[in-house]
Amino acid sequence: MANRYLIEKCLVEHCSATLASMKSANLFNMTFVDDTDIEEQIEFWNQCMKEKGIRLYILRRQENRVLVYVYRKKQLEVSLNRPGVAKFLKQYGYGSTDVEYALDRLKSRIGENNEFPHEIGIFLDYPLGDVIGFITNEGRNFKCAGCWKVYCDECACRKTFEKYKKCRDVYVRLWQQGRSVLQLTVAA
Fold this sequence. Notes:
The chain is an alpha+beta fold.
């Protein structure tokens, strides 16, 4: 199963902050060999990660590529219920901040047109002010850029970016030394 190694690599390289419970979610794109294999692999990882509080969810499928959202449900619930988030998401047709509902709505928004729905930043733990700033400024006039474009608290975001980078570097090194993704994943 070639996809199994590829998913592990993506989890470590793109989702280490979520595996470490530093943030509620991450995303990665992946090319797969055949449909059956990717479905089996996602199910396999969901079973493995269940006790750790992590879930993999396919947000988009295009030809032989998938966009996989990796999240911690309890942390995502907290993110979606931050002050101002429900009101903000309502503008984009989100009738609720219930995790399953919101993810289904996000998935349908991704499929609606070719533009990526910028509210996805909320689902990735980006500060609300930065998500709004990105939308308002159409991606321009930011203070700095790292995991996202920063419009509000540059100092705090730079520290967060550095923590995420350090986490990723450590996780990649440990994985390359033989630690499994499960061993690297912090329990819920």
